Amino acid sequence: MKQRKKQPVQTRQAILEAAGAEFSCHGYAGSGIGSIVAKAGLTKGALFHHFADKRTLCLAWVGENLAGAIDALWIAPLGTIGSLDGMRAHCRALCLGLQPDDAMSALVTLAAETAASDPQLGAAMEGVFAAWRAAIVELLERGRLAGWIHRSIQPGVEAAFLVSAFCGFSVAAKCAAGESTLRTCAAALEGYLETLRAQPGQ
User: Quick one: 42 and 95 in the same domain?
Assistant: First the structure.
């Protein structure tokens, strides 16, 4: 293995990407420093030059890589939605596109494994969830003002439910019958979202 001493930025990113692949597939406890540096093609010395330990590495990956991936796929697109039909189509596509090893799966797996036992890791992941909930709240508030979301709904409550539902869908994606289950979940999700629609005269 070769340490990239003259490319600290690239080396750090290679470590983060390798760590992310390990955390996504094996969880926090199942990911060892040895397997991470092997995947990155580096030495343990290179890793410890950038990160004090596995926990510090995980915190950096959650804050930099995982948060960015969730934002790109799950949060940023919400800003372009201008109708309930658009919201339904977006949520359906996300539900059907869930994979056992994607960013959402990694977030859910790490949160379930570490949030209760490690307050700092838990806070880092809660930051990702909070940003996602806030984006949904903003979308629903925008929809209420525009008249396509029922004015009686509570955006914060709906946002918390949607994020929690997607976490559950992500777990379902890991199961043998995941594809069939996700189709059922997507249909149920669209039905739920329809209940948020503003009716004529409301």
Answer: no
56 inside domain: no
Distance CA 202, CA 200 (A): 6
Whole-structure pTM over 0.85, yes or no?
Answer: yes
Listed residue (130, 68, 135) closest to 103, CA to CA: 68
Residue ranges, the chain, pLDDT below 50: 1-4
- Judge if 180 and 141 occupy the same domain: yes
Q: Tell me the pLDDT tens digit for each residue of 43-98.
A: 999 999 999 999 999 999 999 999 999 999 999 999 999 999 999 999 999 999 99
Name the residue with tokens 């926090």.
28
Q: Torsion angle of alpha carbons 58, 62, 64, 68, nearest 10°? A: 150
Domain that residue 149 falls in: 61-194
Q: Kindly state whether residue 130 falls inside one of the protein's structural domains.
A: yes
pLDDT at 201: 65
| CA-derived radius of gyration, the chain | 19
Helix axes 155-173, 84-96, angle to 10 degrees: 30
3-state helix, strand, coil split of the chain in percent (to 5) is 75, 0, 25
Based on the fold, state whether residues 21 and 117 are members of the same structural domain.
Answer: no
Tally the domains of the chain.
2
